[in-house]
Design the sequence.
């Protein structure tokens, strides 16, 4: 028996037009059944476009939910840049047949009924001269209800699929409000930024009711660590926290503002052999794994969050007004951390469970290029950059 191929288009365009259409091999129009359901949403709904001389960057999550009764295998994600007439400028895709890891890099690609996954936008960087008016994403699925279907899916061509969902979104350009100081002195490596595969967001993660800092507050977060001239972050045995150059280093306020929240009593983690040993603390002492932290309100809806500070090192008080460059504490190894570092993010509010991340741009720093460096008056940083504040 020939299996019908069902196509579902969910098209959201300015004006709010939402349409559905399914066809079988004889091009007969049929009504979409609940068994054929899937939804795709973007977080945030209108993602920001960051831009520098090297490219444009789109940091958002794609949430895919199986709303039907079939088990779905995620086969392809296709992204297009559209002009003002909603016509494609160019198109790219990642699939099971892609070069290198392809869709497998996402991790989990099997969705049972009712399950959701969050995927970091796989088309993170675009050329600097591309004019982005709309973005169109189409997600293609194969049914995978039985082991036999799953084996058969491995041999299917990209144009042979059971279900597709199309979404058009409207991004918006980001214009920096505040410019920040790098909160550590000396040479600093951005060990984790927010590009694909780093701290940009969950990749192929099945949603779980975990009690932790939600990804959207950390959307534009950095893990910062001190480094020597060769880019090393530690000397000797890495399983001794004191051997990390950043451990115990002073942390400075990245901009002026008011301290609106802090926590200072969480013991630092220790290495036990080659694993991290967490301290035994009451569940409500550090419910979100932030360790010791300071949150500063800079005004204009921007809040700095600095995490994983050393126990007892915080020297500011809640309600205190701090100036840019004022020491607030020291780098530690507290909270949900696998090595000593400073976790830094800018958010839209002080409530980490509901805040949205905001891009943070820095000023007056050196960007190292081997033996040489470039002085940056104002700019963005990301994974792998080695920088040093000139203040």
Sequence:
């Amino acid at each position: 028996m020939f299996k019908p191929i069902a196509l579902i288009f969910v098209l959201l365009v300015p004006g709010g037009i939402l349409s559905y259409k399914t066809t079988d091999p004889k091009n007969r129009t049929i009504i979409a059944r609940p068994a054929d359901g899937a939804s795709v949403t973007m977080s945030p709904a209108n993602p920001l476009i960051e831009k520098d001389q090297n490219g444009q960057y789109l940091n958002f999550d794609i949430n895919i939910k199986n709303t039907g009764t079939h088990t779905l295998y995620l086969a392809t994600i296709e992204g297009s840049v559209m002009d003002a007439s909603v016509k494609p400028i160019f198109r790219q895709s990642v699939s099971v047949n892609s070069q290198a890891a392809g869709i497998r890099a996402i991790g989990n690609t099997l969705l049972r009924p009712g399950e959701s996954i969050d995927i970091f936008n796989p088309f993170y960087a675009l050329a600097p001269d591309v004019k982005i008016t709309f973005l169109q994403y189409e997600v293609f699925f194969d049914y995978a209800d039985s082991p036999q279907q799953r084996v058969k899916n491995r041999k299917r061509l990209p144009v042979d699929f059971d279900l597709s969902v199309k979404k058009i979104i409207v991004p918006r350009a980001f214009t920096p409000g505040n410019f920040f100081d790098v909160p550590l002195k000396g040479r600093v490596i951005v060990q984790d930024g927010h590009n694909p595969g780093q701290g940009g967001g969950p990749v192929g993660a099945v949603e779980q009711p975990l009690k932790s800092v939600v990804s959207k507050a950390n959307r534009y977060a950095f893990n910062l660590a001190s480094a020597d001239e060769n880019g090393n972050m530690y000397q000797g045995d890495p399983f001794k926290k004191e051997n990390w150059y950043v451990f115990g280093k002073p942390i400075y306020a990245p901009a002026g503002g008011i301290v609106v929240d802090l926590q200072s009593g969480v013991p630092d983690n220790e290495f036990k052999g080659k694993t991290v040993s967490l301290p035994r603390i009451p569940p409500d002492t550090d419910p979100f794994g932030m360790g010791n932290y300071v949150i500063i309100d800079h005004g204009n809806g921007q809040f700095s969050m600095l995490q994983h500070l050393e126990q007892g090192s915080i020297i500011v008080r809640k309600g205190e007004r701090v100036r840019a460059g004022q020491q607030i504490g020291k780098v530690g190894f507290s909270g949900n951390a696998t090595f000593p570092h400073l976790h830094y993010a800018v958010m839209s509010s002080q409530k980490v469970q509901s805040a949205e991340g905001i891009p943070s741009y820095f000023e007056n720093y050196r960007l190292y290029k081997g033996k040489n460096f470039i002085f940056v008056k104002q700019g963005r940083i990301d994974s792998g950059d080695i920088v040093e504040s000139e203040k």
